[in-house]
From TrEMBL:
Keywords: DNA recombination. It comes from Streptomyces alanosinicus. One of its GO terms (biological process) is DNA integration. It holds the Pfam family Phage_integrase. It comes from the Bacteria. This is Integrase. Residues 467-681 form the Tyr recombinase domain. GO terms for molecular function: DNA binding.
Length: 812
């Protein structure tokens, strides 16, 4: 199943209070400013109060949180702004504010004053008027002026217990410090611009604020032209507090992103002229809907309605039925044979397209026999000749060859990629640990490089309130490194690659893993085996994967990353399925991260992009990676190739991979040449013809136990025995002399100890005159040194060997 991006389309969720359906166009979403049941007036109605009365309120409003010397400054600043607004007509200060033009965007108040002190006081005076609810500025007017600490100052003046509870809940949330500040900022601006208290803030009101920020490019922290929306973190916190009505989505994304369309909406996404054909496509897709998932249904609708019929109507505008002349069909076939802006690239999926169209016609012919009154009028000869789809088999073989070649190219490069992510993770973690122990502004040396812990005003401000971010400057290059962010990115990159290559799961299954996916069972010998339960995905079939020690370490590291002092378990969050256009229930998904948009499950596209970035990084130092990348599904094919070609029975491999047919698993094996594969498959076919059918079945529990016990018995002190599955040791457990022994590079020190012991024994044998013993020890030493060389070579997989320059032999 191909990965797809998250598009802003249609969602069928109904907000509790509106009762209206949300549209795919964000400008038409059900969003309106919240209205106040009673106007919030912390110091009474000051809309028509005198200048001095308002100035006195501004002087005492922050009396408990500021020094008394600030009263005079606030009084002067507020008086100055009110004096300026008094020049404009209006009954209330709000009327004068609007009449002054200051409520328009890009018109900051400070530009109305000529002198420096007056410019500085303008922001302070305006902030006092906003917090006292004297004026209600528009969103763009607020963002045109500069305010420092507006959220906390606004909260203090309001005296709103609900607002105080929101600030406390946000501070105690799992959001990062940056997310918390953005959340407080968003809610404060929503209350200010809509003139309401927190208890009056509705989901539609916060959605309106978010859409306004997106419309005018005012989302905090978003770059120009970004599609980011404001209010994600605030929405989650308000939902958790119970401020929003029951039935409101837990996340703002559930309102903004798409939901499933009906079949009629899918067809009408590609307008066609003929009403009868339009209804036919609707009826056809409705009948096929039960046997297709939503992603396949949308693909079929796009192919039949857009790629097929829309182009037919462009070629023959008067065409009103499915009976196409050969001339029209040939023009259509020529039209769809090429793609691209210049229409110069052959369509690689042409065979599949012709098969789908032919299948559409054959379905109608078959259904016409069952229900002639409904389908008979549309049962006409198929315009796609049979001989044109025969080449589809050849096209599938060519595609299989391309895939096999892709895996052969990447198989020897996988260890290099794994080593890269491990090294990057180790270095970033070590740099973070070293930098976190250094005071702000101090220099330190790590791994032979000199760094300085940054000491900016932002760092100092965050250090006063909580904890300063760990950022360092590389003194050699001047590069600023966000150590925490770099370590987190490196850790997740390592987790993506390791989980994919060690489990063979699909990318959709990876992001669906939760804490509940980890199970365990006790074997008859008392050993506890960790299991990874894979939720139904492509084949709608749940399966269980026994976790190796390496895979268990990765999963445990991911869980430890989610658990902190404040959070003792994996956070609950929802996941949006871009294929099915649906939101899951709140679950402890393992692959989730926090961002400015709130906490959410990492998307398959993000993982694929990160892996491509890793390959580009390697290409800078390794020519083999130039122009080459790994896709998430490549790891699945490499996993299948490894387990099958290391002696695992293919039907057990099919169970691990979740394949319903072992032929599918055989297609994943991409090590041999096609000729070898063909002859081997012919051999298997002949063998199956003479063997009992019952032998080709799913693995039994006894077979699983035997399989696991075999690999347990292959573990030895120095490494691993590579003897084939199901075979006993043929060398009487003389491991050092056995060619099947694979020494773990980590056991090189043990080899040195064995060598010293053998040397001591040889000296004793020489003293005692044990010549036979000396011969045996010398042979063992020879094998030991060969094993050491092999272990050293495996420890350096990228090391090249100089074979010298070939030369011609002299003629006799």
């Amino acid at each position: 199943m191909a990965d797809s991006t998250l598009r802003h389309r249609r969602i069928d969720h109904v907000l509790a209070q509106s009762g209206k359906r949300l549209k795919h166009d964000v400008s038409k979403l059900v969003a309106a400013p919240s209205t106040a049941r009673s106007a919030p007036r912390p110091y009474g109605d000051l809309s028509e109060a005198g200048v001095e009365d308002i100035a006195d309120c501004a002087a005492v409003a922050w009396e408990t949180v500021t020094h008394s010397s600030g009263r005079k400054t606030r009084r002067i600043a507020t008086r100055r702004v009110l004096t300026y607004l008094a020049q404009f007509p209006g009954k209330t200060w709000q009327d004068r504010w609007v009449a002054s033009g200051l409520d328009e965007p890009g018109n900051p108040l400070r530009e109305r004053f000529e002198f420096g002190p007056h410019k500085t006081q303008a922001a302070l005076g305006l902030r006092c008027l906003i917090c006292l609810r004297v004026i209600q500025p528009s969103l763009r007017a607020v963002r045109s002026n500069d305010f420092v600490g507006l959220a906390e100052q606004f909260r203090h003046v309001q005296g709103d217990k609900s607002l105080d509870e929101f600030f406390a809940a946000e501070s105690a949330s799992a959001h990062s410090l940056g997310q918390q500040r953005t959340s407080l900022f968003d809610v404060t601006l929503a209350l200010i611009t809509q003139g309401i208290a927190l208890s009056d803030l509705t989901p539609e009101g916060l959605l309106h604020y978010s859409l306004e920020c997106h419309k005018y490019g005012l989302t905090r922290g978003a770059s120009p032209g970004s599609s980011r929306f404001a209010g994600h973190s605030a929405w989650e916190t308000l939902h958790g507090m119970g401020v929003f009505p029951a039935g409101t989505p837990q996340q703002l994304r559930a309102v903004l992103v798409s939901g499933q369309k009906s079949v009629t909406e899918l067809v009408d996404s590609y307008p066609i002229r003929c009403g009868g054909v339009r209804q036919l496509f609707i009826d056809y897709l409705e009948r096929r809907r039960t046997e297709l998932d939503y992603s396949a249904l949308t693909g079929l609708a796009q192919l039949l309605v857009s790629v097929f019929w829309q182009k037919i109507e462009a070629i023959a505008p008067e065409q009103a039925d499915l009976s196409l002349s050969n001339d029209v069909y040939q023009k259509w076939r020529e039209e769809v044979s090429f793609v691209g802006k210049e229409r110069d690239q052959p369509r690689r999926t042409l065979d599949s397209l012709l098969l789908q169209v032919r299948g559409f016609y054959l379905d109608l012919q078959s259904w016409a026999l069952e229900e002639p009154e409904r389908w008979g009028v549309w049962a006409v000869p198929c315009p796609v000749p049979r001989h044109e789809v025969r080449s589809a088999r050849s096209g599938r073989r060519r595609a299989k060859e391309r895939t096999d070649n892709r895996i052969r190219e990447r198989q020897p490069l996988l260890p290099t990629l794994v080593e890269h992510v491990e090294e990057k993770h180790r270095k970033s973690r070590a740099l973070l640990q070293a930098a976190a122990a250094i005071p702000l502004g101090e220099e330190f040396t790590h791994a032979g490089r000199s760094y300085r812990r940054t000491n900016s005003q932002a760092d100092q401000a965050k250090a006063r309130h909580s904890k300063a971010p760990v950022r360092v400057e590389d003194l050699a290059t001047g590069e600023i490194i966000h150590a925490e962010g770099a370590e987190e990115d490196a850790c997740w990159d390592w987790a993506y690659v390791e989980t994919l290559r060690l489990s063979g799961v699909r990318i959709e299954e990876l992001v669906e893993l939760t804490q509940l996916s980890i199970r365990q069972y006790q074997r008859p010998n008392g050993e506890v085996v960790a299991l990874l339960v894979i939720a139904p995905s492509k084949t709608d079939r749940e399966r269980v994967i026994p976790m190796s020690a390496e895979l268990f370490h990765v999963i445990a590291s991911v869980i430890r990353r989610h658990i902190t002092e404040e959070r003792r378990s994996v956070p609950l969050t929802q996941r949006y399925d871009a294929h099915e256009r649906q939101w899951s229930a709140s679950m402890p998904f393992l692959f989730q991260r926090g961002s400015r948009g709130g906490r959410g499950v990492i998307s398959p596209n993000t993982i694929a992009n990160r892996i491509r970035t890793l390959c580009r990084e390697l290409a800078e130092s390794n020519p083999a990676f130039v122009g080459l990348t790994f896709a998430p599904h490549d790891f699945r094919r490499l996993f299948a190739t490894e387990i099958v070609n290391n002696g695992l029975p293919i039907h057990i491999g099919a169970a691990l991979l979740g394949h319903l047919n072992i032929e599918t698993t055989g297609g994943y094996v991409a090590v041999f040449n096609e000729d070898v594969v063909r002859h081997y498959q012919e051999y298997l076919a002949r063998r199956r013809a003479v063997r009992p059918v019952e032998e080709y079945r799913s693995a039994t529990s006894d077979e699983w136990d035997e399989f696991q016990e075999h690999f347990d018995r292959r573990k030895v002190e120095l490494g691993n025995c590579a003897r084939p599955y199901g075979t006993p040791c043929q060398h009487e457990h003389a491991c050092l002399r056995c060619p099947m022994l694979q020494v773990n590079p980590k056991m090189l020190s043990r080899l040195n100890e064995l060598e010293e012991d053998l040397e001591a024994r040889r000296k004793q044998a020489e003293t005692e005159g044990w010549l036979g013993e000396i011969e045996g020890i010398d042979l063992t030493l020879q094998f030991l040194r060969e094993k050491r060389k092999q272990a050293l070579r495996s420890e350096q997989p990228g090391r090249s060997v100089d074979l010298g320059i070939p030369s011609f032999l002299p003629r006799p």
